[in-house]
User: Fold these one by one.
Assistant:
Number 1:
Amino acid sequence: MTTEPRAFATVDLGAATVSVALIGKLDRSWRLIGSCALPSAAGADGAVASLVERLRRADPDLLDRLGVGGPDAGDLVRVEARSANARTLAIVAATERSLAPLVAAAQRSGWLTVAASAQTTDPLTMTRMLLDGATDAILAGATDPPAADERSALGELAALVAAVATRRPDRLIVLAGGMAERQSEFGDSTKRAGETVLAPAAGTGPAGDPLRGLLLELAGPSTDARRALGAAAAAIADVTDRRVELVEIGFDGATRAIAHPATANGPALLDLAVVPGAGLAPADPDDDVVDRVLAWSTVASDRHRLRDRLRELRIAPWADASGDGLDLRVAAAHASLARILEATPDMGAHGVPDLVVAAGGVWSAMPPSLVALTLADVIRRPGASQLVMDGAALLAPLGGIPEARERRAVIADLLDDLLVPLGTLVMPAGLRAGRPAGHVVVHATASAASTDLGSGDLALVPLDPGCGAIADFHFRDAVRLGGRGRGFALDVAGGLAGLLVDLRDVPMRLPDRADTRRELLRSWQATVRPRSHP
Amino acid sequence: MIEDTELAMVPVRRLVESPVDAVFTLAPGDRALVETGESVVVGAPIAERLRDPRLEEIALTSTVEPVPGARWSRDGGAGPAGVRHTEDGGELLFTWRSRWRLATGDVPDPLEAPVAGIVRDVQPGTSITLRATGQGIRGVVTLGGPTRGKLRMATGASGGLRPGGLDVGLAGTILVVGTRIDAETLTRARAMGIRGIIVAGLASKERRDFLASEARQRAALHRLPPYAVLIMDGANRRPMAGPLMDIFELLAGREVAIVGDPPTLVFDAPELTLPTPPADLVRVRGGALLGAEGRWLGPAGLRRFDGGVHLEAGRIRLGDGSVATVALGDLERFA
């Protein structure tokens, strides 16, 4: 007789979606028994009870073996991840030049931002911004040491921020770079309810890591679902010994994590960015957001109409999820994904990952083929990657398991269940436009199939989930695909979408004419979607 | 059991909320006229907002140690934040090189309490929070405001309002408009002295045009009467929810208020028994049946919808007797 639970529930409670799953121990391994995703209004308790009830009706013996008692599953152990609401950081600096890297660091470190520099904003407007009820914390920064053009304004700026800190003692104050030297002007920090934190200066590339890491720590609790995704990505990289890139799009924010396993040449790597501004449904969609979504929409619409639909999406994220509503979500996912990449330009330097993981509520109501196409449309870089999806939203709860060894063991057990294979994306670059590009022969277990490739095309080669194959590419001209050459043999894995050979432009260039663009987008969607889909 | 569980999956919309903590935004230089814990009555001035705030520099000679956020007057020196009522002065922001930066202005607009209540919090330069006496019906956004007036039904749940439907006899009222309204009607309503509009949906274009008109009016430097638009559902055209209409009809002829944060219609009518909708009443809030109402029949399980999307669904009986299968995410129920 053991007291160890033989089953537990995972709960990923987001702003729009609650995803629950039942994990059970079968033959000494943890396995996914069932999962469902519902509007978050259903609540975690309701969603778990609903899932257990359905599983009980489907296979009561299995639940008995797992020891899942009572009809409401109230005694079930839960591993829960919750997405915290992003807070707003007001950022001030002496000059626009010193402000920009501070804003860039904060935007990818879990904060919504408002910003102003003394160079362009008068003290009254700046005070109003800092005192605003929507502001949760203040970051005042300067380069270290302060540059010549900053020095003359830093004194007055520090006096302004110190006055606000006196008036709002509950607010977190972060003094970065050269501004930290002015801490004495902020008085006795022990008398304030809010923390006063000294931080390193902002920087680009690895030089900016310390400030970004600190801001991420300050942004929310360590148990936040988006931060847990970083730990999950690292565990997957470790278990699979592959370079992993995870992209999560949620209602109120987005995450990008790159994890590499430890090798003989270096330690393991984890680069995590949480970008609240890249959420699927911004609270007040401005023209930039609307235009970005419009660029990827296959439905004819004007700006006003699309803004209406985005507002409706914000108010009721699960409403109107099919038909034109699906098109809106697909287009909005494209726009969100593009914003994540723009907010994290440094992360591109980590190279092409072996495995791309799509996570987040937006994908749960989207056919898998469209998930693969969205990733291919936006993440444009020559190379080959396997695409998978966190279909049961297990990664955030499992990534939140505090003990690393236990986390790794559970993820290793569940690896085949938690990552739904979408297929393999092969994206060569340097093709000559307007001519045949070559062909690919896919050698599966018992057969070989040849497919002609045309420059600018999107080719889908069916390859079922669980199937591995060798894809022999023969190009007419030399292309970039990892290295440069005309012939490549790649190990590819199948999935719900299959082998996606993407011969479109890198980077992507869409037609300016809206009707031509829509027609092109429709043709790409038709290529990847199963024939049975209307 | 399972049916109850599945109905619980349908998002609940609370018809009436209590208490309502209304937040009134202040900017640096605005003057709070109330203190925390103070009771206010309807129409009492609670703050003065500067229409034309500007920054000035002053050298203080007062023996009192000034602090950021304190009021300063040219004749009275500095005092604690939020309590000194002066006509010629401003709000001390910060000191730099022995001189204080002062937020001041020439034209204050009084902010009157649209509801009675107790002041919960005063943060000079940030906000006043007032716990309203009564209950509130939450919308999704308020444009303009706050305001107060006599509630009047202008249309039915599915009706719209055009400029020609307005007349001066409606001055001082807050009108309930069923489905939708355009910017021209909104601005005309303001011009006729109507105090507010409650509408199910307002399109982004109309919202933008109305806000631009409001901004032009404010730039004209004359005090505008209070006016607000409370949007109950969103941006698309749809009828007002039946249970909401039932409450509005009950409140018709009574004084109500619209506040902006949170976007809420506030009323104080303890003697009224508000109608309670049936537990199985559901309303469609997305898709082809937008705005339709019906009765919950039971879960339909995971269904495939247009576009190859699989969604949890339920069956509902509509008003005309037909049965429809609708994604759970497209439904809402009331409590």
Note: The mean pLDDT of chain A is 92.
Number 2:
Amino acid sequence: MLTAVTSPRTPAPSGDELLAQARTGSESAFAALVREHQAMVFGLAYHFLQSRAQAEELAQDVFLALHQNLSHVESARHLVFWLRRVTSNRCIDCVRSSQRRRELPIDGLCDPAVQPRFNDPLLGELLRTLVAELTPDARLVVTLRFQEDLDLSEIASVLDMPVNTVKSHLRRSMDALRRKLADRGHVYES
Amino acid sequence: MSLEHELRRALSRKDPPGGFDDRVVSKIRAGETARMPIVRSRWSRWSRASLPLAASLMLAFGGSYYMHKQQERAAREQRAQTEQAARNVVLALQIASEKISAAQAKVEEITRHDPTNPR
Amino acid sequence: MTPRTLVSRCCLVAALLIPGTALAQGARLQLDHLNKLAEKATETVDVSADASMLKQAAGFLAKGSDTEKMHRLLDGITGIYVKSFEFDAPNAYTESDVEVIRKQVSGPGWSRVVSVREKRELTEIYFWREKDTSGGLVVISAEENELTIVNIVGRVDLASLGALGPMIPNLPGALNNAKRK
């Protein structure tokens, strides 16, 4: 009688395991961490800076910083918090150091990597443009709320900001967005 | 579709251009480091664990190092106070602006719809 | 109930076009009686910025195209005082809380340029003008769940201030609310 024995498939390492391996110097583990979190980091940077090139530069810098500070990241959950916080701080530093004029991302509209995936690409682009016109802190609050689906206290933790300030930024930003959208014919009730 | 729903779609996570992880790893192999200073995570136990080491270092480098650090801290605190003052002012102006523009909008709306209002 | 509105549109237009003139200390209101509302509020903003704090703030804002509007605004202002309270439920403040403010702006030098009353919302803007003295501005915004008083002392360009909106440049780093505990 023949029996077939199949060895169980090795499950993918958990976030904590990857982190532990990366700490020991495993390049592949670190690369896996990058792949796992790159959309979050790049997304935050892109929505803040509205430039793919600058967002990639910032995102790369965040992961370089992570590599230098792996010993300070305590768990997979902490890693997510750490990445959000460092990315947010880097975004603010960008505004501070460059005092750049905000440029509309003409290249982003054509690039498939950032092609909007919904029915009305113009509305999405309009929303992103309007969000990019918010003050830096408000922009971060809105992006963390709607990209990461964080609640107010989580946003407050990431940005080291009082909860009521987060609430105020969100409320004022939503009011401003509604007004600006209404001016352009898109009416949303509050 | 609510605005919140549209914002979730518009602000969804975005993948960077392909090969991003390879480029990061290449930079690490090349010895590149992060360009800007790190903001230490508040979960870090660095400060508690390293206090004895910090004290030893201070003794090793003598009083002048300590004074330098004190001056740096004072300057940072002064800067933080100034920054906080500026934040307060910006916040106040934001609120004032919001209320004034809301009042203007109400006036215009009412005048548009109510012909008895003086122009 | 039909909304009752009083609109002094000509005055508003005039106020927008003419920069505020110089003024005395009379443009500064007493707002401390509102402090008690902080205990009931879910969100409080309390800013009291005198001339020296404004000078510090202006110095801190780096010169640039984004902050130019702010610098121009701050140029003529000698004091900014804001008390803003947001509540979970209506009736957290009383009519008399607002009347104390309105009494102060009914004195000489003050003129009301906007008054909009709708159902349970009141928005009023007052301007201080006196020959050869700095100007001043008061905004009273009283809604069901929010009370905001803004008092600006000095030369104020109402049009520029109104045009700032939430789209004004912010300072680096997380903005901590100027909130009293």
Note: Chain A has a mean pLDDT of 82.
